[in-house]
Specification:
Strand order of the largest sheet of chain B: 1-4
Number of strands of chain A: 10
Largest interface: A-B, 67 and 59 residues
Oligomer: heterodimer
Helix content of chain B: 55-70%
Radius of gyration of chain B: 21 Å
Low-confidence stretches of chain A: 12-20
Structural class of chain A: alpha+beta
Shape of chain B: globular
Structural class of chain B: mainly alpha
CATH architecture of chain A: Sandwich
CATH class of chain A: Mainly Beta
Largest sheet of chain B: 2 strands, antiparallel
Strand content of chain A: over 45%
Number of domains of chain B: 1
Radius of gyration of chain A: 18 Å
C-alpha cells in the first residue's frame, strides 16, 4: 500500500515537471522563431499574478550585459491562455531606452531592435497591461554587428 | 481500494497536466539528486544569485564580432578536447563546459560543422558530469552537424541548451557551477578576441577588448561571492592578473537621448549614449599576453 502511494506521488512530480519543462521549451522556440532571421541569445520566462487595483503593475526584472556596436532584438510573446498582454521595456540605469508598447500612441510591437552604443549592464522589465495576470516569454536575439 | 487509488492517480495526473506554464521562481526545476550543492559560503543569497546579471558572455557575440571583421577561422584558437575524461571534479567540468561552449559558438558562426562533433561530445561528457546532461540535446545536435543542414537550428539548440543548463544550476542552488560555466565562456571569448587582435590588429577589436573591463568587473563581483572556496580563490587570483591589466584602460561616456524610428514597420531604437574606450597599443599587447598565459593555465589539467 505504501509503495503504491509512493508511486503515485513520484508519478505526479515527474509528470508535472516534464509537462512544465516541455511547455517552456516550446514557448521559447516559438518566440525565438517569431523574431525572424536573427540569432537567439537569451530567454526570459515569466508568470505574474494580478496587480492591486490602482497600484503599479507587477513586473519581472532581468539584468544583462549588452555590447557596443551591436544590434539586438527584444521580442515578447504572450502565452495564448494568458489574461494579460505582455509588455517588454529596456532600461539603461533608470532611463527607458525602448518598449514594445508606446503608451502615448497605443501602438504595440511584437519586438524592437536596439542599436547599442555603450557596453554595460541593462535591465529588461516585463509586465502585463493594466496589471492583469499573465504568462509570457521574452527573447533577446543578436541581429548584427554595426 | 486499488480501483480508488488508480482513479486518484489518473485524476491527479490530469490535474497537474493542466498546469502548463511556470512562474519565474519555479524555473525548470525537477529533482536531480546532487551532492555538490554550493560548498562555498555565499555572501549574497542564492535567490539574488539566480537573478544576477545575464549574458555576461555569450558564445555567439565575440565570435560574430571576429567574423564581422573578416578574420579568417583558425582551429588553433580552440581548446583541445582530448583530455575531457581527465576533468573529474565538478568545478573543472563546469569551467571547461563554458570553454567548449564558447568554442562551439565560434565553430557554429564559421559553419565548421566537421569539427562540431568533437565539441558537442566533450560538452555532453562534461554536462553529464555536472548532472545537467538532460538539457543538452546531443542526438539532435549531432544529426544537424553531420547533415550540415539547418545551421540556424544547430546554433539555436546549442545556445538554448547552454542557457537551460545555466538556468537549472542557478535554480538548483548550484550557482557556483553556473558561475564557472559563465567564466569559462568569458575567458575563451576574450582569448579568441585577443588572439585575433594579435595576428590581425583592428581598432574595433581593440576597443571591444578594452570594454571587457566593464564585463570583467561584473564577473569578478560574482566570483568574489565564492572566494572562501579554495578553487574559486585560486581562480580569482589568476583572473586578477588580467583585471590588473585593465586598470589603465579608460572608458568615457558621451550622453544623449535615445532615438526611436520606424524602419519597414519595425521599431528601432538608436542609443545616443556612446562609450569611448582609450587603450594604448602597449596595454593591448600586455592584455593579449596575460590572457593567453592565464587561459592556457586554466585549461591545462
Amino acid at each position: 500500500m505504501k509503495n503504491i502511494l509512493k508511486l503515485i506521488f513520484f508519478s505526479i512530480i515527474f509528470f508535472n515537471s516534464e509537462v512544465i519543462a516541455q511547455d517552456n521549451v516550446e514557448m521559447v522556440a516559438q518566440c525565438a522563431a517569431s523574431a525572424g532571421n536573427v540569432t537567439y541569445l537569451k530567454d526570459f520566462i515569466i508568470k505574474l499574478d494580478a496587480g492591486i487595483p490602482g497600484g503599479k503593475p507587477p513586473s519581472a526584472k532581468f539584468s544583462m550585459v549588452l555590447s557596443k556596436n551591436t544590434q539586438y532584438r527584444f521580442s515578447i510573446c504572450t502565452a495564448p491562455d494568458s489574461e494579460g498582454e505582455a509588455i517588454l521595456q529596456l532600461f539603461d540605469m533608470n532611463v527607458l531606452q525602448g518598449s514594445t508598447y508606446i503608451s502615448a500612441t497605443g501602438k504595440e510591437f511584437p519586438f524592437f531592435d536596439f542599436k547599442c552604443q555603450k557596453t554595460g549592464v541593462y535591465h529588461v522589465f516585463i509586465s502585463f497591461k493594466e496589471g492583469k495576470p499573465g504568462e509570457s516569454v521574452g527573447v533577446l536575439s543578436f541581429v548584427k554587428k554595426l | 481500494m486499488i480501483k480508488r487509488i488508480f482513479t486518484l492517480l489518473v485524476v491527479s495526473l490530469l490535474l497537474f497536466a493542466c498546469k502548463s506554464r511556470v512562474d519565474r521562481k519555479s524555473g525548470d526545476e525537477f529533482e536531480v539528486p546532487d551532492e555538490i550543492v554550493n560548498e562555498g559560503v555565499l555572501e549574497i543569497s542564492e535567490e539574488v544569485m539566480q537573478n544576477i546579471v545575464q549574458n555576461i558572455s555569450s558564445p555567439v557575440e565575440m565570435a560574430s564580432l571576429v567574423k564581422s571583421l573578416n578574420a579568417s577561422f583558425s582551429g588553433k584558437y580552440l581548446a583541445p578536447t582530448d583530455k575531457v575524461d581527465e576533468l573529474t571534479t565538478s568545478y573543472q567540468q563546469a569551467f571547461n563546459l563554458g570553454i567548449y561552449a564558447a568554442d562551439l559558438g565560434y565553430l557554429n558562426i564559421y559553419n565548421k560543422t566537421n569539427s562540431v562533433i568533437d565539441y558537442i561530445t566533450a560538452i555532453k561528457t562534461l554536462a553529464d558530469g555536472v548532472r545537467v546532461g538532460q538539457f543538452f540535446d546531443f542526438t539532435t545536435l549531432k544529426r544537424l552537424a553531420q547533415s550540415n543542414q539547418n545551421l540556424d537550428s544547430l546554433m539555436y539548440i546549442s545556445v538554448h541548451s547552454f542557457n537551460q543548463m545555466d538556468k537549472y544550476l542557478r535554480t538548483d542552488n548550484r550557482s557556483n557551477l553556473s558561475t564557472l560555466m559563465v567564466t569559462g565562456v568569458w575567458i575563451e571569448g576574450l582569448y579568441l578576441a585577443t588572439q585575433v587582435a594579435k595576428s590581425d590588429p583592428h581598432p574595433e577589436l581593440a576597443e571591444r577588448i578594452g570594454e571587457q573591463k566593464i564585463i570583467m568587473d561584473q564577473l569578478m563581483l560574482i566570483l568574489y561571492n565564492f572566494k572562501s572556496d579554495k578553487y574559486f580563490s585560486k581562480l580569482i587570483d589568476d583572473l586578477n592578473v588580467i583585471q590588473n591589466e585593465f586598470s589603465d584602460v579608460t572608458i568615457t561616456i558621451q550622453k544623449g537621448e535615445p532615438e526611436a524610428i520606424e524602419e519597414d514597420g519595425m521599431l528601432v531604437i538608436i542609443q545616443k549614449d556612446i562609450s569611448i574606450v582609450n587603450i594604448s597599443d602597449d596595454k593591448l599587447n600586455s592584455i593579449i599576453e596575460k590572457t593567453e598565459q592565464i587561459r592556457n593555465k586554466l585549461i591545462s589539467i
